[in-house]
UniProtKB/TrEMBL annotation, chain A:
GO terms for cellular component: ATP-binding cassette (ABC) transporter complex, substrate-binding subunit-containing. It is found in: Cell membrane. This is ABC-type D-xylose/L-arabinose transporter. InterPro entries: AAA+_ATPase, ABC_transporter-like_ATP-bd, ABC_transporter-like_CS, ABC_transpr_MalK-like, ABC_transpr_MalK/UgpC-like, Mo/tungstate-bd_C_term_dom, NA-bd_OB-fold, P-loop_NTPase. Keywords: ATP-binding, Cell membrane, Membrane, Nucleotide-binding, Translocase, Transport. The lineage of its organism: Archaea, Methanobacteriati, Methanobacteriota, Stenosarchaea group, Halobacteria. GO terms for biological process: carbohydrate transport. The keyword Cell membrane applies. Belongs to the ABC transporter superfamily. Carbohydrate uptake transporter-1 (CUT1) (TC 3.A.1.1) family. Its EC number is 7.5.2.13. It holds the Pfam family TOBE_2.
UniProtKB/TrEMBL annotation, chain B:
Residues 1-227 form the ABC transporter domain. It is a peripheral membrane protein. It is found in: Cell membrane. Keywords: ATP-binding, Cell membrane, Membrane, Nucleotide-binding, Translocase, Transport. One of its GO terms (molecular function) is ATP hydrolysis activity. This is ABC-type D-xylose/L-arabinose transporter. Its main location: membrane.
Amino acid sequence: MSELSLDHVTKVYQDDDEEIVAVDDISVDIEDEEFLVLVGPSGCGKSTTLRMIAGLETITEGEIRLGGTVINDVDTQDRDIAMVFQSYALYPHLTARGNMSFGLEESTDLPDADIEERVEEVASMMGIDDLLDRKPGELSGGQQQRIALGRAIVRDPELFLMDEPLSNLDAKLRAEMRTELQQLQRQLGVTTIYVTHDQTEAMTMSDRIAVMDQGELQQVGEPLELYHDPNNMFVAGFIGEPSMNFLHGAYSDGTFVSDLFEYPLGRAIEDAVSGTSELVLGIRPEEIEVLDDAAVGDDPAHEYEMHVTVVEPMGDQNVVHLSRPGTDDMSDNLVAVTEGLRDVAEDSTATVRLPSDAVHFFDGATGVSLHNRQLDLTEETLRL
Amino acid sequence: MTKRFGDTTAVEDLSLDIPDSEFLVLVGPSGCGKSTTLRCIAGLESPTEGSIYIGGEHMNYRVPQNRDIAMVFQDYALYPHMTVRENIRFGLEEESGYTSEERDARVEEIADLLGISSMLDRNPDELSGGQQQRVALGRAIVRDPEVFLMDEPLSNLDAELRAQMRTELQQLQNRFDVTTVYVTHNQTEAMTMSDRIAVLNKGKLQQVGEPLELYHAPENRFVAGFIGEPSMNFVEGRHRNGTFTSEFFEYPFDSGIRDDVGDTSDVVLGVRPEDIDLKRLPEGGSSGLADHEFRMTVSVVEPHGDRNVVHLRHPEDASESETIHALTPGTTVVDAGTDVVVSVDPDTVHVFDAATGEALHNRRLESEVEVHNV
C-alpha cells in the first residue's frame, strides 16, 4: 500500500535574519493509487512541498509518511520514488533505451536481461518501441518527455512525483499528453503527486486537486467540487477559465448593492450572508444568460442591461465582455460565455440575467465563501 | 509575393489585400512562413518575387525606417538603462515636426491610454512582463504609424494575462484604427482578436476569412483541424453509394452531402466536438439506433468545469484508432467506462477529399446572417 500522508508539514527558510515560511502547516492524505494535483500560482509552495516529499528539502516541522512509515529522515534514493521534471534531463549520449535502463542498472542488482525485458515491456505499453534506439537529439519534445516518463515507470516505484512535466510542450501536444499520462497512471495504479500552475491540467487529470496559495492549503477536493463548491474566493477565481466574475458590494436590507446593480437575495442566500456587511457576488461566465428579446422579463429582479464591449469568438463559444451601460469604461464589469452560434454584436446593448441558483457570495473582508451555487453533485439528474 | 532562402521556399506566391484599419492575423504552425512574411512587410527581408504595397506605394526597395511601420515583438526589447518615459519617447526620436513639449505630451497621452502613467519614471526591470509589453506597445503607438506589425507579442505572458492583453490590444487597435498585421501560432488569438485570419501552412496561403467563416466553412482539412480547440474530429473512410464507411462506422449521406461529394471515394468525415450529442443508452442496448446514431464507449472524461471533453471509442476499437472527442455541458456528468449513444446530425458534418484535403462539403448553418453578424 502506498498511501502518502502530509501531517502538519511546514517549511521555513532562513534568509539572513528573516524567516520565510514557504509551506505553512499543511495536512493532506493521499490514497493508494490516487492522482493528486498540487496547483497554485508561482511561489505558492507547491514545488517546495513536492521537494520535501522527494527528500530534496528537509522538513522544518511535521511528518511525511509513505505506506505508514515516516520518511522525514530517509534518503531520497531509499524512498522508492520516481520523479519526472519539466526538463527531461535525458543523457544526450545515451539512446532512449540506455536512458530508460540507466536508473535500474545503478540502483538494483537485476540482471541485464531482466532490465532489457522490463524496458521493452514499458516501451511497448507506452507505444514508444520504435524510439528506443534513437538518441534524445533525434526526438521531438513530446517524444523526449515520453522517454523520461518511461524511465520513471521502468523503476516501478511506490510513488510518482511530477513537476510541471508538460509545460515545455505546445498546446495541442500538451492536451494529448494530458490524456496519455492520465491513462497511464490509471493503468499502472501508482500513487502520483503532480505539481502544476495550470488549472486546466489540474481539472482534467486529477482524482483530487489540492489548491495552495502563499504556502497555505486552500482546499482539497474533486475537480467539480472545487469548481462548484469553492471554500473561498481564491479557489473560486483560480479554478475555471475564463475566471469567475466577482462584484464587490455590500449587504443592505435583503439586497446586494454594488456600483453596477442591485441584486435581491431571497431567503436562502439572505440567511447565509446575514451579519456580513461587505460582500462579493461571484458568478461563472457560462451561467450569465445573454437574453433573447423573447426571454427578457422572465425574472426581472435579476436582469440587467449591459453594454457589449468586445466579443471574442472561439467557434464553439463566444466570450462576451460586458460593461456598465452609458459609460466609456474600458474595464470589464462582467464576462459571459455564450454558445458559438449565438448572435451577439459588439458595441450593442444586451440584457443579461444572473440566475439566483447560480450565484456565489463571499465575505468581502476574508474571502471566505458564505453561499455557493446550489448544485448537488451526486444528483442523478446531472448524469447523462 | 514569394520568398526563397537558397533552395528553400519559405513563402510561396502569397497574395493578400489588407484593407485600411483592418486587424489581420497571420496564423500557422512553426515554419509555415508567417514570420518571414511579416519580415518582408517590415523590410527586414526582401521578397524574391512579387511586390508589397502600403497605401498604394511600392515598398520593396524602401528601407524599414521609411515604411512608416511600427513593430512589436515577443521579447519587449526595451532599453534597460532608460525609464519607461524615455523608452516610449524613443519611439519619437526619428520623427520630425515635434517640439520637445509636444513629445512629452504625446508620451503622457499614450501612457495614460495604456494605463501605465504611474510607471513612467521606473526602469523596465521594475515592471512585470505584462507592463513591459504595454511599454513596448506604447513605444510603437506613440509614432502613430501607418501599419502595426506584431510578432507573437503575447507569447511570453501567462495564460490569464494573455487573455487580458488580448482584449486590451483589440480595444486599442479599434480605437487607433491602424492597419495591423499580427503573427501568431495560437489559433485562439487568431479567432478572438482578428477582423480576418490568413492561415498559412508550408509557405502557402490556405485560406483568408473572418474567424467564424474559417471555423464553419474551412476550405480544406488543414484549416478545419488548425482552427478550433479541441480540434475537429476526423474519421477516414470510403464513400460508396451514398454511404460513408470507415473501419468501425457507417454514416449515410443525405442528398445534399451526396451532391457535394459526387463520385469521390476516399474521403474524410469531419465533425466538431460540440456538434456530437451524447445520450444515455436505451434499455435493450443498441438495437433500434437510428441511421446517425452509434453506440460508443467513454474512455476518458476531462472535466473543465464549464464543460467536459469526453473521449469516445467504438466498443470494438481496442486500439482507439477512431477515437472521437465530444463536448458536453459542465453539469452533464459522464463516467469513463460507460456506453452511450452518440448522434451526429447530418447538418453538422464536413466531408474532405482524402487525397487533396480539399473540403467537398461544409456544415450547414441555419442562416448565413448568423455567421456574419456575430
